[in-house]
Amino acid sequence: TAGDSFSSFRTMSSRDRTLVLFDVDGTLTRLRLRVESNMLETLAKLREVATIAIVGGSDFVKQVEQLGDDLLERFDFVFSENGLVAYESGRLLAKESLKSFLGEEKIKELVNFCLHYIADLDIPAKRGTFVEFRNGMINVSPIGRNCDQAEREAFNAYDDEHKDPRVVCQGAAGALP
Question: By CB neighbour count within 10 A (0-12 exposed, 13-18 middle, 19+ buried), where does 120 fall?
């Protein structure tokens, strides 16, 4: 019953009743870099009084690169790929993928739409890897993920002036079943 659940909750330790979730990039680390030792020390102290977890868009391998090989021992929960891969107490809890959820045909329709849409764009530069398929997301980059920082900034300035991301979303919604 609800009363029994509440009674159990009241008898839990403060650590078990408090969950603190962190993003990785820009929160625990600077973007794409390794965690600093003082952050690891702070997290260890926090873990004494709270359950701690990370949630991020990167895959587990990238999270290990940033947070260390002992990642699963440092955090009570680890959620990779926007939560599609979940670990609890160092054990794999669940794993899902866009491919198994959506199916190959729907993914191909989306990728084809994106590539046709990008092909018709007149933008400052195009550098390749326009669609990157990951287990937990499809990353679409009109300029291409292979562009350099100056090209990325030029595209952002162009996009701020000429494009509205809602146009792309509306086009995709109209073109896909």
Answer: exposed
